[in-house]
Fold this protein.
Amino acid sequence: MAISFEGQVAVVTGAGGGLGRAYAIDLARRGAKVVVNDLGGDPAGEGENRSPAQKVVDEIKAAGGEAVPNYDSVASYDGGFNIVKTAIDTWGRLDVVICNAGILRDVAFHNMSEDDWDKVFGVHIKGSFTVLRAAWPVFRQQAYGRVVLTTSSSGIYGQFGQANYGAAKTGMLGLMNVLKQEGAKYNVMVNTVAPVAGTRLTQQVMPQEMVDKLKPEFVVPAVVYMASNENHDSGYVIEAGAGNFNRAAIVKGPGIRPGMDDLKDAEWVEQNWAAITSLEGAEPQWRTGQSEAQHKAETK
Ligand SMILES: NC(=O)c1ccc[n+]([C@@H]2O[C@H](COP(=O)([O-])OP(=O)(O)OC[C@H]3O[C@@H](n4cnc5c(N)ncnc54)[C@H](O)[C@@H]3O)[C@@H](O)[C@H]2O)c1
């Protein structure tokens, strides 16, 4: 059956262009009422411009959908609350939050300034916190919510010149891992997308031919599914784009357990390094001390 968002309200941050625009358009096409948030700055986070968010709202309305713009910065606490307030004041509820807003400040680590670090953390990490902190009481009260955070292969696997961005993006995984637990009782599912797409962000590092090929629409299905009522999984990282869909996960290796009868030394670790670092039989975890498989068996 077609996945529908009829009667639901979604916030998409950074939806004035690139991936966010594509998510907002598909959600609206499926019946969601959408808050199209975008500050409208440049790729490095400088400046403001209302036209990107307004244009996407116009596009959605022209296609028969419902949308309102919001121009707040996710990096401000009041801004995050105002984005959620826009949804509540306009339509009285909020079902989906897609934390997508992002900027890039690529620079080799030895040249990275405090401002390069703080601005990137402000938009990605604090910017996800502010909107979700405002949405959380609404989700709890409704006993329903779907969240999609945005990470990056630059953080999960690493990318030269992106220490600030990689660290901030991997911070999403910590946020997801905690919120998936805090939200579970309230039917709030929190997942993360690691997209790849040709946008103005990747234009800086990809040839134009590749930018044209890697359409954001290749990422949309994964995000829209995770944002839907049909999805009952939480805590997943899905890499999507360029014709690929796969899960990425932090896993725990079996290691070895010599116990606490006597203290080991660094030479013992050296001798046993291969067994300690082996990932054979490694498993993703639901929380500290419980594997995902154990959690699934307990909650079946
Ligand atoms: N394109 C890729 O291949 C790729 C890969 C990995 C991760 N990502 C992530 O996907 C997300 C979307 O990026 P994109 O590629 O579509 O880039 P994009 O630049 O087209 O879109 C990002 C949008 O966020 C908005 N924005 C920036 N700061 C904001 C703020 N403080 N408040 C509100 N809006 C703000 C921008 O104005 C812009 O419209 C980002 O989080 C990015 O880090 C993209």
